[in-house]
Amino acid sequence: xxxxxxxxxxxxxxxxxxxxxxxxxxxxxxxxxxxxxxxxxxxxxxxxxxxxxxxxxxxxxxxxxxxxxxxxxxxxxxxxxxxxxxxxxxxxxxxxxxxxxxxxxxxxxxxxxxxxxxxxxxxxxxxxxxxxxxxxxxxxxxxxxxxxxxxxxxxxxxxxxxxxxxxxxxxxxxxxxxx
Length: 179
Description:
The protein is of the alpha+beta class. It has a single domain (7-76, 84-178), classed as Cyclophilin-like (Cyclophilin, Beta Barrel). Helices cover 13% and strands 31% of the residues. It contains 3 helices and 8 strands. It has helices spanning 29-40, 91-94, 151-158; strands at 8-14, 17-23, 47-53, 68-72, 102-105, 116-120, 143-149, 166-178. It has an 8-stranded antiparallel barrel with strand order 1-2-7-5-6-4-3-8. The protein is globular and about 40 Å long. The two termini are 19 Å apart. The model has no long low-confidence stretch (mean pLDDT 94). Its EC number is 5.2.1.8.
C-alpha cells in the first residue's frame, strides 16, 4: 500500500462518526475508479452498513473465518445498477492484501463487484486474497484502499454487530465524499 499522502482521501460519515479512507488509484485503478465514481455521483450517501461478520455470528462450519464490516448499496436482481459491474482486479495483480484496515469490493461472482464494499477488521485475512479459500473460486476479492483515520468509529461499528451477519437494524451512512 502507498503512503497515505499519495492516496485519494475519502470521508465516510456514519451515524457513529467519520472514517477517512485512502484510495489507491495507482495499484487498483479499476476498483478505485469504480468506488470513486459512486462517491463523486453521491450514490453512497444514505446507504447503510448492513452486514457485520465477527467470530461469534459466523456459522461454526465456516473454515475460513473473517471479520468484516460490509456496506454500500443493496440492489435487487431486477433493479438497474447506476454503473455496470467491473472486471475483477485480484490481489495477485494489484499487490494489495487484505489486512486490518483494508477496504475491498464485495462480490458474488467474478465480475459482479461495484456497489458494495467491506472493511477488514480482523488481522491478516489471507483467505480473502487471490488463492484464498473464502470464496470457492479462489479468485479473492479486490482490495483498493485502507482506513487511515477513524479507527474508534470502525471499532464502534464492529462492536454493534448483531447475533446474525445481516443486520436487522442497519447503521446509516449519511455521506461519502472526497476530502
